[in-house]
Amino acid sequence: MHDLVTSFYAKNYKAIKVEFLALQSDQNLKEQLPKKTNLLFAPSSLQTSRLSAQKAPSSVVGHLPSSLQRLQPTPILLDSNLIEVNAPLVQKTQTSSLDSWSDIEDFALKAKAYVTQPVIFAGKRPETLLDILTAMTESLSGPSACLEASDKIKEFFQPENGKSPIPQEIASLITSLSQSPQDPLYASIYMLRRFYQLKLIKAEVFNMTEKDLLVFMQTGSAALAFLPLSSHRKASPKDMETWQSLPRACGNDGTSVPYYPSARKDSNRNLTASFLSVFPMSSKKDIDDLLDFLLEDFAQENLCRSTGLVPASKSCNSPDVQSSDARWWFAVTGTPILSLSQSAFMTDSDREMFAHELIKFIKN
After folding, report:
1. I need a labelling partner for 222 at 20 to 30 A (CA). Which of 31, 172, 209, 274 fits?
2. Helices 126-141 & 186-197, crossing angle to 10 degrees?
3. pLDDT tens per residue, the chain (364 residues)?
């Protein structure tokens, strides 16, 4: 990103200063920015939604597929949530379909005879657990359930009295979000609890780091892995040769089954994602020109290769099948939605407290 921005200005305008800041989640974001900030690149989140940023011009937004054009702020890269499958185990268990949650459960149950960990994810990282919860909620209950849960969690963690909640209050919140079929997190938390009770998800998974996850995948010691594309990228292609994302499992061509299966039609899906977005803090021609440049094919292909993430552009080439499949699914489904990990919490501490109580709830 730094090289693209500086080279653009060196070629078209005068040289500029590009700074990388380590922003603190428990401090006001706007107060941390230098006063003369013209453009901010940052993940979309509850924090960044409070910025007084300008809208990107229509000429810039036009580079995006229609499903992404409605997003505000404008994304330039996306990170998708994956379910990856141990392909040799699919053959060993004679699994012919992974098109539904019932298929996934049946496969994981059969796989228990071959691996120590049927279902794995980096459960020690609160963001990962909440990303999985959101993706499952969207697939089982729809995007409106995700938005309802996000609104209720936001309201809970930002009380008028300003007091921090205690664990028992957070536990009560989780119960209220999942107590009956009408509650937004009922189906997703029920599924996680069921997988835990069936020993498809084991207790140690909730202490698993990203590094642990990749070791289990590299050694073929798990059947299914829930992870973001950005984590997949941290392993070598050779180590991941035996793993397939759900759209390509069981001989599928990448276009028949989304990453998290659902009974709803693909056109009614709104897949979850994380976004690296642009926040124009001033209306200047050079900023508009830069945004246009960053969403053109050359820059998008460069960013995609260097980060391993999914291009936002509708026309640029993708460097590999993972990026290509993800972009295709984001284009043919509805506007993607932000995970609860980013949409519902202002601070790391709030997110960590919620994830801690969620794990306890799943285990009980």
Report:
1. 274
2. 110
3. 888 888 888 888 877 777 777 777 777 788 888 888 888 999 999 999 988 889 999 999 999 999 999 999 999 999 999 999 999 999 999 999 999 999 999 999 999 999 999 999 999 999 999 999 999 999 999 999 999 999 999 999 986 657 789 999 999 999 999 999 999 999 999 999 999 999 999 999 999 999 999 999 999 999 999 999 999 999 988 989 999 999 898 888 888 778 899 999 988 999 999 999 999 988 889 999 999 999 999 999 999 999 999 999 999 988 888 889 999 999 999 999 999 999 999 999 999 999 999 999 999 9
